[in-house]
Amino acid sequence: MEKAPLRGELLVLDESHWVADPDRGHHWARLLLTGEYREMHLISAAEAHPLLAPLVDDAGSVDVVTHQRLSRLDVLRAPVRTTGVRPQTLVVAFSRKTVYAVAAELDRHRPGRVGVLYGALPPATRREVIERFTAGELDVLVTTDVIGHGINVPATTVLFAETTKFDGTELRPLRSWEAAQIAGRAGRYGLTGHGTVGVLTGVRGLKPSTALVSLGAEVARGDRASDLPRRAPRLRPELADLGALEAVDLPEALVRWQAWARAATRDEAMTPDDVTSLVLRVQALLPLLRGPLGAAGDLHTVWRLVSLPIDYDPPRRTRWLVLARAALRHAAGLPVAPELVLPDVPVGGSVEEYEQAAAAARDAQTLLRQFPGVAGLDDDDAAWVEEECAEAISELLPDAIAVSRSAACAECGTAIAPWFSTCRPCSAPRGRGPGRDTGREAARGGRRGPRSGSRQGRRPTRSGRG
């Protein structure tokens, strides 16, 4: 969405109900309000029609077409245990740790035939995992709700291992529209026959709600309206909206814009975004502009930096500031160490280490597309690092699943909920008894470390990336 052009002949806009999302909704709203297209096709949940209609009321004509699901979606009457999971099944959990714990439990019964899919995996790795599941090389795919975002695979069954998720603020039950998006992956028309949805039991600490899953299936079939949040579409300012003359004016201009926008949209079908994160980014950059970097920190450069789609939530905030400072140094003609912008490929690292390096490479790509040449790099160099990390992760995933300790204490091996690493007795600050030491040693003896590879962490040169 962030990369969509603002003009063209035909725009097909999927997941249009995201126009109300607090973080990304302003991209949908801006495109619908200002996009110059001869024709637009908006695809969304039916409940989003009141949100979308005001954004396109200046169109020459608006046709509303309601589609019904073309394949059956049934709810399993009984929970499915880990021993009874069949091929072509998606199992859903909502954190990386829980995904691996569930995958490890299932891998005991289907060795080497279980895959994982979650947001931190590089896109290339995600594509490979999806292709392997589609080709039948994997029987089961344990996935987060990333599977509900437009990914179609030949899955006959979706099983929820849990029905609560942490949304960045609180741990809460899934909303019915979230459950519906995931449940609807079962039995996709043209890929499989009819689909079934249910819950998975047998993983300690996970207690999915059958009632919530049934409700999600009803919404996915179109039998019931969802509880799509009643938010208004989001509006975020562009630089031309602010009236700022210099970078130092931006914090006050942003606050002034937000106050104006709140008043202007009070009786309208829009709501202004909270611009606090933009203000904080500007305030973080302004001290850098008082020294040698000041000449490079013109208004447009600072706005481009604060608008980079790089996560600003801790602990990623430091990463954005490092990249922004590197761009300013480059613009000022000062040297920038390449490793500040683009990390080396880890050597013999774990899956998580490769994931972190790939994420840093994606951030570098984002910067280098806007500011090519920083530290003598371009976005192809960053893409090379990400691809290398993705290849390493693909090689390590089978072993990472097999050696994961499924819902077990890392110290003594006692069964625990997957989001804990140690049981209550082992985490208590008290002396160790002989029995506990023996249990720990046994647990350690049964674990295999991640396979170490010979991959070299060489940075690509400008003449070639061999």
Automatic annotation (TrEMBL):
Keywords: ATP-binding, Helicase, Hydrolase, Nucleotide-binding
PROSITE patterns for the chain: HELICASE_CTER
Location of the Helicase C-terminal domain: 79-236
Listed Basic residues bias regions: 445-466
Signal peptide: none
Biased composition (Basic and acidic residues): 434-444
InterPro entries to which the protein is assigned, alphabetical: Helicase_C-like (IPR001650), P-loop_NTPase (IPR027417), RNA-DNA_Helicase (IPR050699)
GO molecular function: ATP binding; helicase activity; hydrolase activity
Top-rank lineage group of the source organism: Bacteria
Region (Disordered): 427-466
Protein name as catalogued: ATP-dependent RNA helicase SUPV3L1/SUV3
The organism of origin for this protein: Geodermatophilus tzadiensis
Origin organism lineage: Bacteria, Bacillati, Actinomycetota, Actinomycetes, Geodermatophilales
